[in-house]
Amino acid sequence: MTPARVAVVAVWALTLVGVVLIDVSVPDPHTLSWLALALPLAIVAGIVAQLAVAEQRGFVLRLAATASGSFVLVCVAALVAALS
Q1: Are 31 and 81 in contact (CB under 8 A)?
Q2: How far out from the chain centre does Cα 1 lie?
Q3: Which pLDDT score is estimated for 55?
Q4: Which residues contact 60 (CB under 8 A, 6 or more apart)?
Q5: Distance, CA of 69 to CA of 8 (rounded, Å)
Q6: Contact 32, 81 (CB under 8 A)
Q7: Do 73 and 21 meet the contact criterion of CB atoms below 8 Å apart?
């Protein structure tokens, strides 16, 4: 696996850990607010990770994959928080 793809998966893993921690530790009235903050932080982490890789070819595609995967993870966590 290339370092660029490792960076994408690493951001997804970081997002997953973040949303699970938010769902578990934040009180119910504030969970969705914290999840709304988790997505922009994941996108910034994705930008930093892709810039750290310093691979020009496919940058936009990898950044889109990072943001899309993080978006799906945050949406699932928000759905879980809303239904519980």
Answers
A1: yes
A2: 20
A3: 86
A4: none
A5: 9
A6: yes
A7: no
CA–CA gap between residue 1 and residue 9 (Å, rounded): 10
Angle formed by the axes of helices 31-53 and 59-83, to 10°? 160
Report residue 21 as tokens.
């921690």
Helix then strand then coil, in percent of the chain rounded to 5, is 90, 0, 10
The angle subtended at Cα 38 by Cα 16 and Cα 20, nearest 5°, is 35
pTM equals 0.90
pLDDT band with cut points at 50, 70 and 90 for residue 80: very high
